[in-house]
Design a protein that fits this description.
Elements: H1 12-38, E1 44-50, E2 56-58, E3 66-68, H2 70-84, E4 89-96, H3 99-112, E5 119-123, H4 126-137, E6 147-151, H5 161-168, E7 173-179, H6 181-187, H7 194-201, H8 215-232, E8 237-244, E9 255-260, H9 263-276, E10 282-285, H10 304-315, E11 319-320, H11 321-331, H12 336-348, E12 352-355, E13 370-373
Parallel strand pairs: 1-4, 1-6, 4-5, 6-7
Antiparallel strand pairs: 2-3, 7-9, 8-9, 8-10, 11-13, 12-13
Helix pairs in contact: 1-2, 1-9, 2-3, 6-8, 10-12
């Protein structure tokens, strides 16, 4: 048996995933600690890293420098907030079935755990350990705490929809899933893959991909199906982010899919995605299939301003800006900046009227404004 050297050399995809995770976990902790303080509750959050790996990588082929993986990056963010207030609690569970990985990670995690937090590294299958941990959560107040699950597999097995449905049953759960669509498109037809596909989606609807005629359609089909399954499993907001890879055009190797029950979580994730995104590896929030979009429609061709105008016209009256912003975050590529720009352009073109509150500037639109489609 060939022994694989660990740590591995980090690739750009992994580096990008970790950059985004770090950018998001920081405000995630800040927001919940602030809310808990305001409510007079114990400051406590839970982070779960599935398929966590060894925690460290080589920076390049020279193997002279190392960089941190997701568990250590999150631990460093946690320590920043624990430095501010050691009474806070950041519970962390990291799981991987590779014993070499977990042994290496445990040594690193223990060194970082200077506030004696409940940071555990498990050598186990993700689905087994997460259900075991949740059984314990059900007996404590942890079931009501903010829970963040980073699920970053090497393929498409080991994190069945049935398990994700259990995670989403908790009131403050967020999922961030590395959806390996490239592998799914390659292997879905293989007879031995059917059981894995059934577990992944929780339905045999994946077989309908046979109706697709091009690889691009297959990619769109699987991403939309998985997003829809997460919504049925209990998420209220699901946003797939395509990671554009050089030379692959519209055929990315994977999507990062964020699922939550809170519009603030979605907004925070999209805003941070926009900050991290950079060419040639850039993220695009593609939004979900809606009644206005066909299954295989390229979201890049659906103009944000046209969809906002359509929303306003369908409203048949005035619409609060906040309502438009929430809708656009959940259903389009838009973030606050581009949503505001689209509305101002629509106003300039005579497509909508914006009724601003006293003192609000004319060259933008903010909370409190009301918008009506012009005839």
């Amino acid at each position: 048996m060939t022994v694989v050297e660990i740590p591995w050399i980090i690739d750009e995809h992994t580096r990008i995933k970790h950059a985004l995770l770090t950018k998001y976990i920081d405000p995630w902790m800040a927001i919940f600690f602030a809310v808990q303080t305001k409510q007079g509750r114990e400051q406590k959050v839970v982070y779960f890293d599935g398929f966590c790996g060894p925690g460290i990588y080589y920076n390049d082929e020279s193997k002279t420098e190392e960089c941190c993986g997701s568990p250590l990056l999150v631990a460093e963010v946690a320590n920043k907030y624990l430095d501010e207030d050691p009474k806070r609690s950041v519970i962390m569970h990291c799981v991987d079935r590779n014993a070499q990985c977990t042994e290496m990670l445990k040594k690193k995690i223990d060194k970082l755990n200077r506030y004696n937090q409940d940071w555990q590294v498990h050598n186990a299958e993700f689905v087994d350990k997460v259900n075991e941990v949740l059984d314990l959560f059900d007996q404590t107040d942890l079931q009501h705490q903010p829970l963040f699950f980073f699920i970053d597999p090497f393929g498409y097995s080991g994190y069945p929809m049935k398990t994700l449905e259990r995670l989403l049953a908790y009131p403050r759960t967020e999922l961030f899933v590395n959806f390996m669509v490239y592998d799914i498109v390659r292997f879905w037809e293989q007879e031995r893959s059917e059981e894995g596909m059934m577990a992944l989606f929780g339905t045999d609807d994946f077989k309908k991909v046979a109706e697709c005629t091009t690889p691009e359609q297959k990619y769109a089909f699987f991403v939309n199906l998985y997003s829809s399954c997460l919504l049925k499993a209990g998420a209220q907001y699901v946003m797939p982010f395509r990671v554009n890879t050089p030379s692959q055009g519209t055929r990315p190797r994977y999507y990062l899919i964020h699922a939550s029950k809170d519009i603030l979580a979605l907004k925070t994730m999209k805003n941070n995605m926009a900050k991290v995104s950079d060419a040639p590896y850039r993220f695009e929030a593609i939004g979900l299939v809606s009644e206005q979009m066909s299954l295989f429609e390229n979201p890049d061709k659906v103009a944000l301003r046209d969809r906002i105008e359509e929303l306003c016209r369908n409203a048949k009256g005035e619409v609060d800006y906040d309502e438009i912003e929430d809708w656009a975050y959940a259903n389009t590529i838009g973030v606050a900046k581009t949503i505001k720009e689209a509305l101002v352009e629509l106003e300039h073109d005579g497509k909508v009227s914006i009724k601003r509150q006293p003192g609000q500037r004319k060259n933008t639109v903010v909370s409190g404004a009301r918008i009506r489609a012009d005839k």
